[in-house]
Amino acid sequence: MDYRDAWHGQARCTVFDAAYGDGAGFRVLADVWRTDPHRSPHLHVIALSSLLLPGFHRIPQAEPGLTLDLLSATIDDALSQLSARVDLFRLHGLEQAGAGFARALARVAAPQARLLGQGLTPAQVAALQAQGFVFEACAEPDKQKAHFASRKPRPPLPPLPERRAIVLGAGIAGSAACERLCARGWDVTLVERHPRPAMEASGNRAGIFMPLVSRDDNIPTRLTRAAYLYALRHWERLGGIGGAIEGQACGVLQLARDPGHAEVQRAIAASGALPAEFAEWLEQPQAESLLGLPAPDGGWLFRQGGWARPGSVCEAMLAACGGRLQQRFGVGNVAIAYVERHWEVSDQHGVIVARAPTLILANGAGAMQVPHAAPLPLTAMRGQVSHVPAGMVPALPVVLCREAYLTPPAHGVASAGATYDVDGDPELSPASHEENLQRLRGLLSDPQAAQGAPLQGRVGFRCIAPDRLPLVGRLPDFGALGTTERLRDVPRHPGLYALLGYASRGLIWAGWAAELLAAQLEGEPLPLESALVDALDPARFVLRARRTSRGPQATDI
Question: Which residues form the FAD dependent oxidoreductase domain (predicted)?
Fold first, then answer.
C-alpha cells in the first residue's frame, strides 16, 4: 500500500502516526506528498511524541498546505480527545500499549481509512477487526495492512463554508482572526470603530507573555500552556520578538507570594515534569543573583517569556494577511443584522460597510453592546497601567511579577500594573496609580521606589468571563434555547462566532484561539483536546445557568 492511496482525490488528507520519534517518518511522508502531482491540497499529520510537555502542540510549517500536530499523551488518551477524521493510520511502537485504543481509533476513522501497522500484537489486530478494520495479506510477517470497512453510520462532514468573513474589532483578537483566516485562503473584511488598530486594551506599551504553573495541572494551566507555546512558535513565523514584533524575550521571574506558596512551588518543581527551558524554580540565592534585588522566597523563572507591545503583534499579523484583507477603520459604533444568510455590518449612519456569511465578534468589551452577545456573562474590567520613568526604578534584566508586574525599561519607560477595577472611567486615576506604585515597591522590596512618579499611564478595559477563560466558537442563540443538556445540541446563530474574554492574557491567547476557530470553520482536525475545546465553548454558560437554576440536587450530564 502506497501513501499516495490515502490522499488521491482528497481535498485534505489526515494521517495519524503512533510514534513521531525523531521526525524522520514525517519528513519522508511530507516529501512523498510534495513530489506527487496528484496530491491533496492539504496534508495534516497528527503524531504522538513523548518529548514534549503534555497536551496537543501545533507546530507551524513553512508550507500553507502542510500541518503538523504533535500529541504528548498515550495513544488511548490522544485518540479519545482527538477531533479529527483520519484517512491513514501508521501504527508502530505499540507492543506495550494493549488493545484498548481500537474503539477510539475507529471513532476517528474516515470511511475506507487505510492502516499500515508494524509489530501489532494478535490482540491488537483482533480488537481492530472487531471495530471494522479488514486486514489484507502482507508479504512481510511483521507488517500489517488494513482498510476500514465498518457499516456503522458515520456522521456526515459539514459542508465547507464560503470563505468570506467579517471580523469585528482590530485589537489583538481580531487581528489574529484575520491572519489565521487569510492564511487559509479566506477573504476577510476587518471592521473597527477607531481610526487604526490596537486602540483599546491592545494599545498598552507592554504585554507580558508567560505560562501558568499549578500542582494539579488544571484546565486554565493546560489551556494557557497550549496558547503560550503556540504563540512562541507563531511569532517566529511572523518575524520574531525583537524583529517584526517590538519587545524582549528576556524571561519572566514570578516571585513566590510567601513561604507557604514557595513550598507548594518547590513540590511542583521536584516532580520533574517541567523542563528548565519552560519553567525553572529558583531558590532565594539564585533568584537574587539573577535579579540583583531581594527575592526572599524564590520564584519561577520562565526563560522563554518576556514582554511585547501588543500593537506591534497586531501590525505583524495584519501585514501577513496580504491582499485578502480589506480594512474598514473609523466606522464608529456599528449594528449587525442577519439578512438572506449573510451578516451585514452597518455604521452609525446605517450604511452597510461589510457583508459576508460569517461574522466573528472579536471586539472585546464592545461585544457586550451587540444584542446577540449581550446575554453572555461578560464583564468589562478596567485596568490602569502606570508608566514610570526609567531612572526611578532599577534596570531589571527580566520582567518581574507577583500580584503585579514591572517590565524592563523601553524607550525610557517601565510599565507597572495593572489594576482590576469595576469602574467605567477611562481617565487616569491617582488612586489606581498609587496602587500600582505600592505593588511595585513590594516587588522591589524598596518602600522608596518610584517616589514622586508622575501620573502617567494608560487605561484599558478587559473583557472577562466568570471562569476567566476565553470564549472561542459559535455563539448560542439565546432566543431559541430548549432544554438540552449537551453542548452539541445547543442552538446556535448561523455563521456567528466569538473570540472574546481574553482578560489580561490576550497577547498569548489571540493567535492560538484564532487558530482553533479557523480549524473549526474549515472542518480541520482541532489543535486541542476535545475536553478543552468544550471548556472554551461560548455555550458553556447556557448549560451552567440551567444547572444552577435546577438547584443543588440536580445531576449534571
Answer: 165-519
- Tell me the C-alpha distance between 348 and 325, whole Å: 23
Cα(264)–Cα(213) distance, integer angstroms: 11
Res. 557: pLDDT tops 50: no
**pLDDT, tens digit, 9 for 90 and up, residues 9-19:** 889 999 999 99
Residue carrying the nine cell digits 476567566: 468
The torsion angle over the Cα atoms of residues 265, 271, 275 and 278, rounded to 10 degrees, is -30
Cα separation of the two ends of the chain: 44
Neighbours of 143 (CB within 10 A): 14
pLDDT at site 24: 95
Query: d(Cα 67, Cα 490) in Å, to the nearest integer?
Result: 31
pLDDT surpassing 80 at residue 185: yes
Grid cell digits, residue 464: 472577562
Helix (H, G, I), strand (E, B) or coil at 498: strand
The amino acid present at 78, given as its one-letter code, is A
What is the three-class DSSP state of 238?
A: helix
Q: State the fold for domain 164-200+312-378+465-550.
A: FAD/NAD(P)-binding domain (3.50.50)
Q: Are 208 and 410 spatial neighbours (Cβ–Cβ below 8 Å)? A: no
Which CATH code is given to the segment(s) 4-148? Answer: 3.40.50.150
538 within 8 A of 474, measured Cβ to Cβ: yes
Left, alpha or beta for 413 (phi > 0: left; psi -120 to 50: alpha)?
Answer: beta
CA dist 276 and 53 (Å) reads 12
Cell 503538523 locates to 68
Q: Write out 128-186 in H/E/C secondary structure.
A: HHHCCEEEECCCCCCEEEEEECCCCCCCCCCCCCCCEEEEECCCHHHHHHHHHHHCCCC
Task: Return the SS3 of 27.
Answer: helix
The pTM of the full predicted model, rounded to 2 decimals, is: 0.95
Alpha carbon distance 130, 228 (integer Å): 41
C-alpha cell at 340: 438572506
CA distances from 521 to 69, 180, 219, 288, 497 (A): 18, 11, 24, 48, 10
Distances (CA, A) of 151 to 131, 148, 546: 10, 9, 37
Write out the residue limits of the CATH 3.50.50.60 domain(s) in the chain. 164-200+312-378+465-550
* Mean pLDDT of the residues in the chain: 94
Q: 510-555: per-residue pLDDT in tens?
A: 999 999 999 999 999 999 999 999 999 999 998 887 776 655 433 3
Q: Could you tell me the strand order of the sheet in which 252-255 lies?
A: 280-282, 299-302, 252-255, 399-401, 405-406, 413-417, 379-389, 457-464
Average pLDDT over residues 383-410: 96
CATH 3.40.50.150 residue window(s) in the chain: 4-148
Question: Grid coordinates in use for 246?
Answer: 517590538
